[in-house]
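During the reporting period the student researcher (J.K.) took over the structure-prediction task from the postdoctoral fellow and processed the backlog of single-chain submissions. One of the processed entries is reproduced below for the supervisory committee.
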Amino acid sequence: MSTKLLESTEAKNIKNLRELGLTATEAKIYLALAYLGSASAGDLEKRTGIQRPHVYKALNKLEKRGLIEREISMPTIYRAEFPEKTLATLIAQKKMETIKLEKNLQLLLRQIKLHRKSAQILGLKDNEYRFTIITGLSNIIDKLKEALGETTQTLEVVTIASRFSSAILEFADEYEKALRRGVKIRICVEEHKPYEKAAKIIEKLAENPNFIIRYVKET
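J.K. obtained the following structure tokens:
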């Protein structure tokens, strides 16, 4: 096999491993170790041309991911004895990431559809509101807490059923304080049955006419 063909094959193999989540350095080290079966960090440095500190860093990452094993010896020997099993693990991890991404995209589409419906229900025009999608539990908590503390006129919230009751329970006091300041709070959420404890808080908050919840049917 020619040198050019070997280099081309090597580049494709590295590309495939990178698509499965490894860095370029990790992919090079893993391939070298898989070809050799076992090797020391020094052997891998000579074979790949990667400096020793980066070799150790990559080996540490590969070991944590369960792709290689380390033998306690002098010098330390690393092994990649079962590539069929380890590569199957990488593929499984990638599939899980893809499933998670698909779920996040489905959630995003639900939020967009829900927001459009809520805008119609609340009678908002395109130039009268700003639609911001907030992801991550800590970001949602921070932004909603900030909005409840600073808003002086109207706060409009669009959320999904799975987060609604938790938010009501988390921010019951903040909602009440905002309502006492005269803030109008309007919430649009998918049609569902809130948790019993959340439902009681909603009932109490709804005694104030400025607190309105609209339940939207999912399509």
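The committee noted the following: Residues 102-216 form one domain.
J.K. will present the remaining backlog at the next meeting.
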